[in-house]
Amino acid sequence: MDLLQKRESEETLFTSVSTGDNPAPGVGARKKKYSKICGTNYPLSIAFIVVNEFCERFSYYGMKAVLTLYFLYFLHWDENTSTSIYHAFSSLCYFTPILGAFMADSWLGKYKTIIYLSIVYVVGHVVKSVGAIPTFGNHIVHVVLSMTGLTLIALGTGGIKPCVAAFGGDQFEEEHTQERSKFFSFFYLSINAGSLISTFITPVLRGDVECFGGDCYALAFGVPAALMVIALVVFIAGNEMYKKTPPEGNVLLDVWKCIWFALTNRIKNRAQHIPKREHWLDWASEKYSHHLITDVKMVTRVLFLFIPLPMFWALFDQQGSRWTVQATKMNADFGGYVLQPDQMQFLNPLLILVFIPVFDFGLYPLVNLCKLNFTPIKKMATGMILAAIAFAAAALVELKIEENAMPTPVPNESYIQVMNLAGSSIEVAIQDYDLYQEPIETFQDPEGYAKLILNSNQQGLHFEIRYQGSLFTFNHTVQEMTVNSLIVYEAEGSLTSQLVKDMEQKPTEGMSAVRFINTLGQNVNITLGNGEFVSVNKSYGVSSYTVLARGRYDNLKCTLGPEELFLSLGLLDFGASYTVVIMNTSAQALQTWKTEDISANNVHMAWQIPQYLLISAGEVMFSVTGLAFSYSQSPVSMKSVLQAGWLLTVAIGNAIVLIVAQAAPLEQWVEFVLFAVLLFVVFIIFSIMGYFYTSVDPEDLIANEKKRKISSSKDMIDLVSTKAEL
After folding, report:
1. What's the rounded Cα separation, in Å, for the pair 501 and 499?
2. Among 173, 298, 355, 520, which lies 20 to 30 A Cα-Cα from 671?
């Protein structure tokens, strides 16, 4: 789903084939002949690698698409905890590639690293799927299994991330550069196809398939687990066809040792009268070669530019957390097709497929025709601005959503509404409160909840109701932090009332809720569309709320004593709760009056499309341009170091979201504005850094690399000649 993974793959391959991850001289004479596809220069082994990548990406993004809702509605964590764990997992997925690269380059080689970590990956998926079975253990067991599974998945997906694409590139002969380039077209297609299909399908498996009496998270996690098993089996099936290169040392480790030695050597000699050196890395010259020090100098210049970048990823990766939570509070009816809230994430890979050619062949050439110097750093800065605007748009949508949100009582607060089921209008007064000024007509929809400030955690309130010229008084006890309805009706020739508690928050996941008040003299039994059975006592009995999937509920079967009647509720909409008053019977049907206690979600999910458009356009400008630019600014031997640095910015970005969610709980729209402002500040800092950055011509780097290879070859020849003379 994220373009980062797609671009990393190409650069990882470039790193491996450029830095000597191919067999050493002399090995070529012993290598066997590998199978080709239909007489072409494409090795058959790449077919297994491409299928493996499709299944792995389907597995990862499919699982991740439903993860936030799993935390919210299966583990019953609050929004901040769910967001924090989601981003902690994402952060870990981008720290572990360093471990995978170390294992591949220094110990196991790419093939064995992919195999072993894929097994860990599969085990993680299986554990995660088992943890999503409601009947398997208690809540603590579910949490332990979920966290164990996610840790193993992060180790697996992150560990193989730097290996798979490079391993695919290793399958080609050095002279087949065109074929290798086309291989990456298929490789990217497999990534996009896997992420696009999975982010659309797994939410359907979760929300549209019912198992264990609710959303089927076990299936939504189980299918990605099965795809990962297929990925592993397919990859192993190609074993005999693969060209495998032995591990040849870790460049990242060499760079770290060089930097560490330079720092410690400089500190050690600070007190001594040693002449200053031109660059702080020159203090490593006592131990490391001039070539390595020069390369490290170049790469540290680029890594310095990476410092502001995590803030972009902090915003970008919230598509799967905060934006998904936002979608659960919106109207998801797209002309008869109901989109699951976690399905909206599929827009990102879809838009990326559209935007890349549009930008490469339309926007950028148009800018060049206008003779505007749209440098890579300016493109990246523009991507930051687009992401910031996307979050500003998300904040506006959130504000609109909150307009019809339920009031949230705090200690010593409560809310109340009045429902008049009597024969004519009433006037209501509450002692010490000045709330209801106008008469309330019979069966008038309540205008909203009125706030009550209580003197303690519960308080007896004195209600005075004037009805048909008479004054009636009632005393009811109201508890703090509750939402209530005062139901007024006639019973046995006199006015009476009862205070009932209402639903205190909107139904989650876009569901709806309904309760019944039975004004008849007999009990009513109602069979709802989902097979649930509701019994409502006679003489103004009030049922509890039943949560239902959004939809039309017509011609429901009811029994009233020996009679079988029908009841129609009409549309029960997203996020609404209803009170349905059963009034009388007529022509084999129950006559009802329906009112909304909680308003339906009135902001359509389509309003999220602008923010997805902006963040996806920002991703293309930021991620594609950033990787291409940074890689062009470093020597060939340092490509893997830059990849590690880039992945680290993603990990840190997710850690920032975790910190904000836990350390400073804010209203959601305020948090969106905060992130937008922070990224705008980072945009200014990055623009200043970019202004003073001096770009290196990639052709000069290539020329210097050729000179270095020629110089190394001459040194080797001289050494061989000297030994021969001796």
Report:
1. 7
2. 355
CATH number of the domain that 215 lies in? 1.20.1250.20
Share of the chain above pLDDT 70, in %: 87
> What's the predicted TM-score (pTM) here?
0.84
8 Å CB contact between 321 and 167: no
Instruction: Calculate the alpha carbon distances from 516 to 315, 483, 546, 555 in Å.
Output: 44, 17, 9, 16
User: What pLDDT digit, counting tens, does each position of 645-677 carry?
Assistant: 888 999 999 999 999 988 877 889 999 999 999
The whole-angstrom separation of Cα 476 and Cα 692 is 72
What backbone phi and psi angles, to 5 degrees, belong to 536?
Answer: -120, 120
Parallel, antiparallel, or unpaired: how do β-strands 577-586 and 512-518 relate? parallel
Handedness of CA 642, 648, 654, 660 (dihedral sign): negative
Mapping DSSP to helix (H, G, I), strand (E, B) and coil, where does residue 342 land?
Answer: helix
Q: What is the phi/psi pair of residue 419, to 5°?
A: -115, 115
pLDDT at 242: 87
List helix spans (H) across 333-430. Answer: 347-358, 364-369, 376-402
52 three-class SS: helix
In a domain, 532, yes or no: yes
Residue 674: per-residue pLDDT: 95
Half-sphere exposure in the Cβ direction for 164 (13 Å, CA)? 38
Report long-range pairs for 349-358 (Cβ below 8 Å, ≥24 apart): 349/1, 349/192, 349/195, 349/196, 349/199, 350/196, 351/612, 351/613, 351/616, 351/617, 352/3, 352/192, 352/616, 352/619, 352/620, 353/192, 353/196, 355/616, 355/617, 355/620, 356/620, 356/624
Give the pLDDT score at 485.
95
Per residue in 345-375, pLDDT (tens digit) is 999 999 988 898 898 888 888 988 888 888 8
Q: Is 50 exceeded by the pLDDT of residue 26? A: no
CA 184-631-360 angle, 5° bins:
60
- The helix (H) or strand (E) run that includes residue 197 is helix 177-207
CA angle 314, 321, 151 (to 5 degrees): 85
Phi, psi of 26 (to 5 degrees): 100, -25
User: Is there a single domain that holds both residue 486 and residue 572?
Assistant: no
Domain that holds residue 7: 1-249
Claim to verify: residue 332 and residue 377 sit in the same structural domain? yes
The dihedrals phi and psi of 157, each to the nearest 5 degrees, come to -65, -40
Closest by CA to 146, choosing from 82, 228, 209, is 82
Least reliable range by pLDDT among 13-22, 428-437, 608-617: 13-22
**573 and 722 both lie in a single domain:** no
Residues 106 and 247 sit within 8 Å (Cβ to Cβ)? yes
Q: Same domain for 194 and 244?
A: yes
